[in-house]
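Weekly puzzle thread! Below is a chain. First person to post its structure in C-alpha cell form gets bragging rights.
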Amino acid sequence: MGVEGRDKQKALEAGALALSGQLGHTVQRLRKAYNLSLSELSLQSGVAKSIISQIERNETNPTLATIWRLAEALDVSIERVLQTGEDAPFLEKSTKADTPILVSDDGRCRLAIIGWIKTVEWLQCYDFSADPGGALESEAHQRGSVESLSVLDGALEVEVAGVTETVKAGETLRYRCDRPHVIRNASKTPAHATMVCILKAAVMK
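Winning reply:
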C-alpha cells in the first residue's frame, strides 16, 4: 500500500532521514504492547525477522517501505512510528453508537462489547445488565477459558455444570466457562455487572 500524495511522501521521507534511535524503541514498544514475538511480527508484516531485530537494536536504516509494512502490521499510522516524541499517549475513544450490544434470547439481558477488537480472540470485556427474571445462556467456550463476573448493582446467579453461586454487588465470581453456563437475575430488581472472559487462560486442574 503506497503513501498517497507527493507532499506526504516527502514529509515521510524527511522524517525517515531524521530518525534516531527512537525508531527501534518505538517498534519494540509497540510489538511488546501487542504481545507479538519477532517471528509473529515478521509474519504479519512481511519484513524479515532479522531486519526487525536490527531495527529494534538500531543497527540498520530501514527503507520507508519497510517502516510502512511494520506500521500496518502494528495497526498504527506511519506518522506515529516516525514520531520522535518519547512515550506518546495512546487514546482511543468509542462512542455509545460504536459499542455493539448483544441481547439474550429472552430479551432481558444485554451485553455491551466494551473490549478491544484486537484482543477478542483471547480477552473479551462486556458491560452486562439483566432485567428481573432475565437469563443469559452460553455454550462452552474453548478449553481452559475463564470468566470473571463483577456485580456492580443487584445480584446475579451463575450456574456452571449444575453448581449455582450467587454474586452480590461488590463481589466478583470467577469460573470456568469451557462448559455450558447460565447467568440469571432471579431477583425483583435490575442487575448490572462487568464481565471479562479470558479465552486462553492457563490450564486449570
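Puzzle host: Confirmed. Bonus trivia for everyone else. The chain has two domains: 6-82, 96-198.
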